[in-house]
Amino acid sequence: MIRLNPEQLVFVTERHLATLTTLRADGTPHVVPVAFTWDADEGVVRITARRTSVKARNAARRSADGAPPRAAVCQVDGGRWLTLEGPVEVVEDADQVADAVRRYATRYRQLEHDPARIVLRLEPDRVMASAYMSS
User: Fold this and answer.
1) Interacting residues of 123 by C-beta distance below 8 A, sequence separation 6+
2) Other CB atoms within 10 Å distance of the CB of residue 15
3) Residues 119, 93: Cα–Cα separation, whole Å
4) How many CB atoms lie within 10 A of CB 94?
5) Nearest to 73 by CA among 35, 28, 108, 106
6) Is the pTM here over 0.85, yes or no?
7) Rounded to the nearest 5 degrees, what angle is found at the Cα of 101, between the Cα atoms of 96 and 107?
């Protein structure tokens, strides 16, 4: 499980948007702006999305060998940046979606109810960051 250092932890709790990169069926990158939350206890990124979104479809697509898809979330603020990369999965469990919505409200704003809402759960196995946050 990835543990972020103190500078990284502060950065992922500030109110910033990020980009999410997933791969389309043809292997090309699909990059979209997202809001995300970091769960330090579980070492996971959560992104709420609609079930029918391209990012959700990309996150649900397994490779021919059954491996889970990979994704990267990159948050940038001026010269500060942090990328969290790892396997991603679609979570539809109502309790987990509600938890993600609660976390989102803490960092950003309250979301309206959406029965098509799911969660993309990314468990990073790689962290890249600007130099001052890498130590």
Assistant:
1) 1, 2, 43, 44, 45, 86, 87, 88
2) 8
3) 9
4) 9
5) 35
6) yes
7) 130
